[in-house]
Amino acid sequence: xxxxxxxxxxxxxxxxxxxxxxxxxxxxxxxxxxxxxxxxxxxxxxxxxxxxxxxxxxxxxxxxxxxxxxxxxxxxxxxxxxxxxxxxxxxxxxxxxxxxxxxxxxxxxxxxxxxxxxxxxxxxxxxxxxxxxxxxxxxxxxxxxxxxxxxxxxxxxxxxxxxxxxxxxxxxxxxxxxxxxxxxxxxxxxxxxxxxxxxxxxxxxxxxxxxxxxxxxxxxxxxxxxxxxxxxxxxxxxxxxxxxxxxxxxxxxxxxxxxxxxxxxxxxxxxxxxxxxxxxxxxxxx
Length: 286
Prior knowledge:
Elements: H1 26-46, E1 52-54, E2 66-68, H2 71-74, H3 81-107, H4 112-124, H5 128-138, H6 141-157, H7 164-187, H8 190-221, H9 225-284
Antiparallel strand pairs: 1-2
């Protein structure tokens, strides 16, 4: 009886685009550091004893200062929610800068539509090397995806074992794999902006409610014309929380929409690149 040798399982060929190895420690470190920094600003800058006519000499975690000398110092009297709101604002600034650098780099150089047209022209002339050179000049996510697809494109031209449809599917698969490696980098950390956009307003309202509770409690403990003065002052201080919350939320929403719009443009360019490669190959190498 003849020996039957086991057949080795086929080894799948890896994509030419390798995953980008980048940590995301900023996602948990930045909010924590910003909140601590927010407390430091609230406690030692806004809450400096020189900003009040009756400073609390004992100090501590939350000194009971009175007699704010200006509007900036009155922000301190808004309560313990104020440093959290300052921390939220600083977190928004950090992630806006981080996303701006990332999305700008991913956009590459030049106009994406013009880049795609140059690649289409090169492929129409069957000059794949020139198309790859255009990808090196683009230096963005669209260029990276297009370059991965072009390498497979060039490989399929010399392949004599597969049919045209199979070659097109291989090119399409390579583009999809390259796209799957690029898109997560673009969308990373946007969730922080969308979350702060919702939470900051609620925190501002919470600080306002707590301030109103303190104001009405002080009103109940006093009487006469002085009570009305303390109430109006307390309401003014409480509304600083609302102003900080709404302002932070507005900035987060605006920047989130700006980034998603730019990412949508890059994604559209990637989709157009994949369509260009498959259609060009199907037309030129039947």
